């Protein structure tokens, strides 16, 4: 078989539509079967007439300028619309300018592109939803543990218990809460607690104290962990005073009046995530016990602290000695009560 | 709860092939092909990708309202619906889906019948 014959056969069998036409009058000299399948007989085909009509001027000038033209045409030989990529090249045969037209069916490619578009939109939307979900989970976890602990938890999957030597603790408990809860609609009780604890959270945040948890009506906050804070004692005292002030102000305008006892503690604390499935960040240690015990010893709307905190607090707060008390689990210990700053108008009363 | 059919059969990789086959079958069918004759290809592919993915429990949502809306003016008959549902089954089978799973998909498709078939259809 001669090369010419092979070429001829190749042109017949390939899936690319090929046509050759004269540049001057666009008369067709050759079309291969694939081309004819799509566009019909070039002599009679209205499809071809239409296409030529559409692209003639543009194609002519492109061919003149660059010797080639590329475009896309849509045809509908049967029910389905085909997208055909059209590529024209200018060439010379026997001194005459001829156009070689090469057509490829890119319908399937277009369909796949469309499908990928659809799918990527879907995936992107799902990714956004997952991202939002992740943020919600993170926010929830951040309510359960301090950020630095959360970061450790996220990175390593576990949290190593850490001992913090210099930490102060504030523990608050409402007076008569159980009695209130018994005689009041639980939703009211909850909404009261929610309202007050939300305010407390704002106060602790403002003073750089970390709320660890609430246990029923008790509120536990710490300062000096997980980040060390040299002024941990004044931080918790400031929070304690703001808690009581907030309650006083709130009581003036609210139907239900609340009183609280507050205990402060200072010393070492261990912080860690407890549990695997139902994990919660918790704190243990002498400072926590102390705050809990002293809170019990406090009178309503009083802040009680160990005498060991006296020198940390004396510059900024009003301190009264309460003398030695026998505290369960801690033995005999000297206590102080802490109240707000001296009014600036009468600084001398302190001396 | 095991994974969805979408996961079982290879996710989007398979869905894309099923959609292509289904698309060809529907367009080539003389009884129902005309319905899609003037449908924008892009829309049809979009619609079918989402629809097939959601049928298989994949990450696509295709609301019943939308399904109803896109078919509302097409005047589709029960026999049209049967043909297309059959073609979908064929397309799934062609891509190696097990008969039991095809039946499960067919049941889901059946629940959409009232949304797709025209209200006044015989």
UniProtKB/TrEMBL annotation, chain A:
Q: Which residues form a coiled coil?
A: 109-143
GO molecular-function terms, A-Z: adenylate cyclase activity; nucleotide binding
Query: Does Oxidoreductase appear among the keywords?
Result: no
Q: Which residues form the signal peptide?
A: none
InterPro entries under this entry?
Answer: A/G_cyclase, Cyclic_nucleotide_synthase, Nucleotide_cyclase, PAS-like_dom_sf
Domain called Guanylate cyclase: residue spans? 168-295
One term under GO cellular component: membrane
Query: Where is this chain's protein located in or outside the cell?
Result: Membrane
Keyword Coiled coil present in the record's keywords: the answer is yes
From the UniProt record, give one GO term of the biological process aspect: intracellular signal transduction
Which keywords label this protein? Coiled coil, Lyase, Membrane, Nucleotide-binding, Transmembrane, Transmembrane helix
Q: Which Pfam family, any one, appears in the UniProt record? A: Guanylate_cyc
Identification of the protein by name:
Class 3 adenylate cyclase
- Per the UniProt record, the source organism is Shimia abyssi
TrEMBL record, chain B:
- Please give the Pfam families that the UniProt record associates with this protein: Bac_globin
Q: Which residues bind heme?
A: 47, 71
Q: Which CDD domains match?
A: TrHb1_N
Which UniProt key words apply to this protein?
Answer: Heme, Iron, Metal-binding, Transport
Which Gene3D superfamilies did the record assign?
A: Globins (1.10.490.10)
Q: Is the keyword Iron assigned to this protein?
A: yes
Q: Does the record's keyword annotation contain Magnesium? A: no
* Protein known as: Hemoglobin
